[in-house]
Amino acid sequence: MRTLNLRLGPPDNTVPVTFYQPAAIADFHTSVRRPLVILLPGGGYEFRSDRENEIVALQYLAQGFAVAVVGYRLRDQPPVLPTALYQLGHVVADFHRRAAFYGIAADHILLVGFSAGGHLAALYADLWPQLAVTLQLPAKRLKVAALTLAYPVIGLRLGWPADRTALAAITAGWADHEADLLVTAQNPPTFLWATTDDELVPVVNTERYAAALIAANVPVTKLIYPHGRHGLSLARAVTAFPTKFDAADPAFGEQFIRPDVAKWFDQQLRWLDKLWHLDDFWRQQ
Question: How far apart are CA 131 and CA 139, in angstroms?
Answer without folding.
Answer: 8
